[in-house]
Write a structure and sequence with these properties.
By secondary structure, the protein is mainly α. It has one domain: Tetracycline Repressor, domain 2, CATH 1.10.357. Helix 2 crosses helix 5. It is elongated and about 55 Å long.
């Protein structure tokens, strides 16, 4: 399995200091699982190798996860939450709800471009355990509500809008990850989402095409 984009890999490898011991160990196991996945793929991973890479006994892994599937789900959810947090970090200077929505959409499509196998894994976990993604939805919902407040978006309901966003972006990610997307597909998908949320095509296309903000350096406490 190829590596993750550097900005995301750095965030996943960072931190841990100040967390309770059990949470530090859990994070250590997830970081070890990522290393094993990169070397052998998800299907080639074993509890024994994850434990070895983490520097713990096999029993320690079982204290946190009962199966390899649980580890894969936890890795994918942690990766998605970390990406959402880093997207939010990059949006600090962006006040417009529509642009914040566009940035979030395009960063997930960017993940599919940069690391197709990881993007597919994220999509599969989202389909198998949608309840685990509830926390991630809060990031999308915040930008959606801001767009409504700014009168950029006009929606029938938040639930329907979330379905539109999630479904369209997920389909775009899968098409990109499979190598079937035409050039400029990420921008086109984002434009389509913004239009679905009530923006006119010209305005939506202009917002979707704005340059993505860089990920800022990790805060000192995250790097510790």
């Amino acid at each position: 399995m190829p590596g993750l984009p550097p900005a995301l890999a750095e965030a996943l490898a960072a931190g841990g200091e100040g967390l309770p011991k059990r949470e530090r160990t859990r994070r250590q196991l997830l970081q070890a699982a990522i290393a094993v996945y990169m070397a052998r793929g998800v299907t080639g991973a074993t509890i024994q190798e994850i434990a070895r890479v983490a520097g713990v006994a096999n029993g320690t892994v079982y204290n946190h996860f009962e199966t390899l599937d649980q580890i894969a789900y936890a890795v994918a959810l942690w990766m998605a939450e970390t990406l959402c947090r880093r997207i939010t970090d990059s949006q600090q200077a962006v006040k417009e709800g529509a642009e914040r929505m566009a940035i979030g959409n395009r960063r997930y499509l960017w993940l599919a471009e940069q690391s197709p196998a990881w993007a597919v894994m994220l999509l599969e976990v989202g389909a198998a355990a949608p309840e685990g993604l509830a926390q991630i939805q809060q990031y999308i919902l915040a930008d959606l509500r801001l767009g409504v407040k700014h009168k950029s978006f006009r929606i029938a309901s938040e639930a329907a809008a979330l379905d539109l966003i999630n479904g369209t972006v997920a389909a775009g990610m899968r098409r990109i990850a499979m190598g079937l997307a035409p050039e400029g597909h990420a921008t086109a998908v984002t434009t389509t989402v913004l239009m679905g949320l009530g923006m006119m095509e010209k305005q939506a296309a202009a917002v979707a095409a704005r340059p993505l903000p860089d990920f800022p350096p990790l805060a000192a406490q995250e790097r510790a």
